[in-house]
């Protein structure tokens, strides 16, 4: 089943069950706690927080999401994209746990010939919050899930809150068992690669009064009206229904891999290292196009920096596949053609998208060329002195002045038979971060202090955006 059809069936399922169909919000919303929209519920936050009355009791959407916190997983796990689509249904004081379970289970297990996804119910598992006995009982009652396929988890995994006083509640996730060839027995708590998480149901029922609900503090009350927020990963469902190995091989992502194969003359599936590169290219190309489409431009701060990092990783990965010509314009076209049926604005905006991509690539290739000269000189000096290791100093200079990610330096050095003093590099990075922090403190610029932000990005790759729970930590970063 193609992604387009998966989306259509989702929307139709919930539309016919009284949900108002709401279009995806932009990836960029005016929300100081988030760089990018990372879940379907974000555009509905005012209703969940009680800041505005919900204009409808039930809603459904297919939301564009970007989770840069998952960037290091891309290409390595089977299931993490930086850009993905989250299909969701929402209840604002209307149906609650039982309704949410019924709706989800029915869509997943109804035969494909009858408008559903046709998953074999015997391969579905669920998790519940360890204190949510009600959910465990309802899964058995509503969906007939046997007790041995219901697993309890602690607050870290299965309790949702915003990290600040306000609404919170237990979650329950639905997983699909891909079978013994994919890993260990024992359900999702044993192996999340074999058991793929496809859908998360959040039951908003509590009022949180403290800042550390995850540490076991009980709620201070119950919400007067209870809400439902769910998110189903469209790419994950596509992966399972298309019988492919991972989310990068699904119909809307794979075409970029095919183009990269043509450009490089290498074949996807031939060796693990190249395969990871192919997947990174395809994933990031899509994220890049979607971000530029929504108005992000590459830069050295915040959103622009995340975009820049994604684009540089594409360029670096294609170079490691042996391609040295500009590629971003080319990949952007492939992404546009794959995504345009659902996102027609990619066609009308394409000239702009393409020119942003080309300019960024030209600029990066220029610094790459300049940096490569410095790199070559450093290699020559090191070899002349009989050494076999590039200094941390050099790696730091390449990073700081020429934007070389450390893994690029590592790979290029390895090609020359050299190692890199990574510890030295990391010490210099830490030193720089400390300085930036001190500066920030001294200047007390608060919100606008992007040097701290930049160094945090450098440190963590990108700021962590995990689930719905990162709001607090992220607002601290900004
Ligand atoms: P995981 O544990 O696999 O990282 P999650 O628990 O972080 O997923 P949720 O925050 O519950 O994910 O998001 C709701 C749904 O969105 C998930 O059940 C999954 O199907 C999908 N999803 C989450 N992150 C990604 C991603 N990086 N790429 C593709 N789909 C995702
Ligand atoms: Mg999870
Ligand atoms: Mg989840
Ligand atoms: Mg996650």
Automatic annotation (TrEMBL):
Q: What is its EC number?
A: 6.1.1.7
Tell me what reaction this enzyme catalyses. Answer: tRNA(Ala) + L-alanine + ATP = L-alanyl-tRNA(Ala) + AMP + diphosphate
The free-text cofactor remark is:
Binds 1 zinc ion per subunit.
Q: Name one GO biological process term.
A: alanyl-tRNA aminoacylation
User: Keywords, A to Z?
Assistant: Aminoacyl-tRNA synthetase, ATP-binding, Cytoplasm, Ligase, Metal-binding, Nucleotide-binding, Protein biosynthesis, RNA-binding, tRNA-binding, Zinc
Function description: Catalyzes the attachment of alanine to tRNA(Ala) in a two-step reaction: alanine is first activated by ATP to form Ala-AMP and then transferred to the acceptor end of tRNA(Ala). Also edits incorrectly charged Ser-tRNA(Ala) and Gly-tRNA(Ala) via its editing domain.
Q: Tell me the protein's name.
A: Alanine--tRNA ligase
Instruction: Write down the species.
Output: Saccharopolyspora thermophila
